[in-house]
Every structure is written in structure tokens, then in C-alpha cells.
Amino acid sequence: MIGISGDPEGVALLHAAASGDVGAVRALVWHASDLANQGQVTPDRALVFAEPFARMAAVKGDSSDQLMLAYVVSLLAEVARGEGRDTDAVCLQAEYIALLNDLADQGNETASTQLSVSGGDLDPRALKLANQLSGPTPPSPKTETVH
Questions:
Q1: Considering 61, 79, 95, which residue would you say is the last residue of a domain?
Q2: Which of 24, 25, 40, 105 is packed most tightly, with the most Cβ within 10 A?
Q3: Same domain for 42 and 79
Q4: Are residues 38 and 83 in the same domain?
Q5: What total of structural domains would you count in the chain?
Q6: What is the pLDDT of residue 3?
Q7: Structural domain contains residue 128
């Protein structure tokens, strides 16, 4: 963890997020970014902290949260590539592409634009894998009441 215990704002956000506040979950992603921008943590450490919160926000939030997750995943792919972790970078870039593809298929213009802008910079292996990842969202699991 980032060492959030000495960070009153972070602690408050964690408590709110743990209580189901999607806005707080979203704010934790931006809070990690702020800490990196202020030089309190390294950017890669901020991303590792932000990723699970971006994923939670994407599940519970709206398309802007899904775009935020795509952005975080794209940055993680860049970090992986910079560290020489090619397989991780390809997998993360594929996830980024799949997230944007799914949003674009739902009519999200920002995702469509980002895909067209990124087109030439995308690894062909990631494109192939993204096609396997993209697709209709699976139905939510049904909960059954046990009597």
C-alpha cells in the first residue's frame, strides 16, 4: 500500500470506499495520481495502488469509470514495457484495447477516438489477444435465496 495510514484524506476515502461509496472508490484512483504528481510516491507505485480501485469503480460506476480503468491499464502496460516485461505489456495493452472496443461498441465516442489515435502504436499481438477478450458483457450472476 502507499502508506495511506499517515494520509488522513486517503484513510477517509478508504473508509467510504469500504462502505460501498463508488465516488470514494473513484477518488482513490485520482488520489494515488495526486500523490505521484506531488512526488510522495513513484508513478509505478501509484498505479499499483490505483489499479484495483479503478477496476472496482469500472464495475460499479459508469462508462467514465471504464475509461479511467482503460487509462490505468494503458499506463501499467507502458511501465511493464519499460521494465522489459514484454508479455505483461502485451496482455495489459490487449486489455486496454478490449476495454475501449467494448465502450466504442456501446457508442462511446471518447473510446472510439482513443482507439483511432492509438492505432499505429498498438502491438499486433495485443490486437489479436484483444479480439479474444472483447465481446458482449456476460450476464451478472444470479443470486438465489436459500430457504
A1: 61
A2: 25
A3: no
A4: no
A5: 2
A6: 52
A7: yes
- With b for 16 or more beta-carbon neighbours within 10 A and e for fewer, the 102-131 pattern comes to bbbeeebeebeebbeeeeeeebeebeebbe
Residues 56 and 69 in one domain: no
Question: Is there a single domain that holds both residue 92 and residue 125?
Answer: yes
Q: Does 29 or 131 have the greater pLDDT score?
A: 29
**C-alpha cell, 45:** 507505485
- pLDDT at residue 139 tops 80: no
**Mean pLDDT computed over every residue of the chain:** 83
Rounded Cα distance, 19 and 24, in Å:
9
Secondary structure (DSSP) of 46-91: HHHHHHHHHHHHHHHS-HHHHHHHHHHHHHHHHHHHHTT-HHHHHH
Domain that holds residue 31: 1-61
Question: Mean pLDDT highest for which of 39-43, 49-53, 120-124, 139-143?
Answer: 49-53
Q: How many CA atoms lie within 13 A of 72 on its CB side?
A: 26
pLDDT bracket for residue 136 (50, 70, 90): low
| Residue 103, C-beta contacts closer than 8 angstroms, at least 6 positions apart | 63, 66, 67, 70, 110, 111
